[in-house]
Amino acid sequence: MRKIKVFSTATGLKIVESSAITWGELKEQLSNEDISVSNVKAVENKTNTTLELDDAKLPESDFVLMLSPEKTKSGGYKEVRETIQTIISLNGETAKNHFNQGKNYTIKSYSELESLLSLWYLLSEEDEDNYDDDYEENKVYFHNCIDKIIYEIRNCSEYNSRPDSMEKAIELIVGTKTINDLCIDNQKIMSNLTSEELNWLNRFK
């Protein structure tokens, strides 16, 4: 049994104990622990090996695993930007403010754009035939609040690690945690990484 420090651009850093020998075995364990391994590129830090095949061998000692979104032929950075451009042209200022929060969307990373796009679709899921003015007003207010929360969470992290989990947003909305609490939580978990491991991860930023 050894410790694996799993850094995901979707969920941040999590430490798991595992006796998995192959990538396929570890993937199954990570999925059971709510760490997404779908459509991701996985790289381990001992030999800088990209883990692709299920029977790929894992390091025998403790190691760091980096998970980042896989840019497929059907959906990479270019397509995400084109999709956002279309949404802005159809929805005007509301969409522009959503995607340009903090800085213009054209200079944001793939993971940031993917996060913003997912949130846009989440907030847009509604029955267009069944709403009144009050509902629409509240939806816009909610939309702006969540945008601000996600922007603030993202910018308290050294790694811009797409901290877009609704759990964190809800904790902030209901007041059980503050931005400072989340920053402290993030610093505590990141302190489990050595300076060498941090430098290795920073190459993927």
Summarize the structure.
With 205 residues, the protein is an alpha+beta fold.
Write up what this structure looks like.
This protein is of the alpha+beta class and 205 residues long. The chain has 2 domains: 2-71 and 194-202, Roll (Ubiquitin-like (UB roll)); 77-190, no CATH class. 48% of the residues lie in helices and 14% in strands. The protein is built from 7 helices and 5 strands. Strands 2-1-5-3-4 form a 5-stranded mixed sheet, with helices on both faces. The longest helix is centred in the middle third of the chain and has 23 residues, at 77-99. It is globular, with a radius of gyration of 19 Å.
Morphology call: globular
Helix content: 40-55%
Overall tally of domains: 2
Main sheet specs: 5 strands, mixed
The number of helical elements comes to 7
Structure characteristics:
Ubiquitin-like (UB roll); about 200 residues; alpha+beta; about 50% helix; single chain
List the SSEs and their pairings:
Layout: E1 2-8, E2 12-18, H1 23-32, E3 40-44, E4 49-51, E5 63-69, H2 77-99, H3 110-124, H4 133-154, H5 166-174, H6 179-190, H7 195-202
Parallel strand pairs: 1-5
Antiparallel strand pairs: 1-2, 3-4, 3-5
Helix pairs in contact: 2-3
